[in-house]
Amino acid sequence: MRKTFFVGLVLALFIGILAGENTDINNTHAFGLHYGTVSGYGYGYRFFKGNQGCQFTLFAMTTGSNDKDFDATAYGVTVDEKTGRRTMLNLGANYLHVLNDFNKSNVRFYLLGGGAYNFYRKTMVYQNYIEHSAFGDSYKKTKNKDTWVLGFGPGIEANPKKNIRLSLELPVSYKSDGSLIMFIPQVGLYYYFK
Q1: Segments in the chain below pLDDT 50
Q2: What is residue 131's predicted lDDT score, i.e. its pLDDT?
Q3: Would you state the pLDDT for residue 25?
Q4: Vertex 135, ends 130 and 137: CA angle to 5°?
Q5: pTM to 2 decimal places
Q6: Integer Cα distance of 167 and 171 in angstroms
Q7: Cα 69 from chain centre
Q8: What pLDDT is attached to residue 128?
Q9: Which residues sit opposite 42 in a β-bridge?
Q10: So what's the pLDDT on residue 24?
Q11: Which fold has domain 2-193?
């Protein structure tokens, strides 16, 4: 249910922006890195059309292995455990509305709203010992944890170089565990293609 809602939100944001009125001749696309609670973290993509924009982030990583070697002479231990494979995924989607571009200067002030979805899977590998010298059965347990964050707040983007832009945002966010987080900064670094 949550995944369907998230995919629907992303599609609605993207279609709404593409169908919006074009008030700027130069539609801009950007690729970079972004880190935040509401925006998500990882590779970032931004698209602006007039005073509307959208931002998507993606991060995925897998580390470790479920193939573990255990000590054959673990005296005094009946069960030994080791961390196996860990998988992380973060997806973010945000709507950006430009409030002021200061007459097309190198600074843009905007509001953002959206959310991020986090998924974490950790596998633990266990080894039973029989009579402290011979291996018994081995088994694995996998724990999944997923969370989401929704929020909105102001942001500012400045370009110190021609196509390089740095963004700073201060959203208020609501997490799936019920906590309300006030003003945790988010930051992004983007390269804009014209």
Answers
A1: 15, 17-26
A2: 62
A3: 34
A4: 90
A5: 0.73
A6: 13
A7: 33
A8: 72
A9: 34
A10: 41
A11: Porin (2.40.160)
Distance CA 40, CA 57 (A): 6
Q: Which amino acid is at 25?
A: I
Question: CA separation (Å) from 103 to 19, 44, 81?
Answer: 24, 26, 61
Looking from the CA of 104 toward its CB, the CA atoms found within 13 Å total 5
The C-alpha atoms of residue 63 and residue 84 are separated, in whole angstroms, by 8
Coil, helix or strand at residue 134: strand
Give DSSP secondary structure letters for 2-55: HHHHHHHHHHHHHHHHHHS----S--EEEEEEEEETTTEEEEEEEEEETTEEEE
| pLDDT for the residue numbered 88 | 93
Q: Are 185 and 172 in contact (CB under 8 A)?
A: no
Range list of β-strands (E), the chain: 28-36, 40-49, 52-63, 79-100, 107-130, 134-158, 164-169, 172-175, 180-181, 186-193
Residue 21: the pLDDT is 41
The amino acid at 136: G
Confidence (pLDDT) at 125: 81
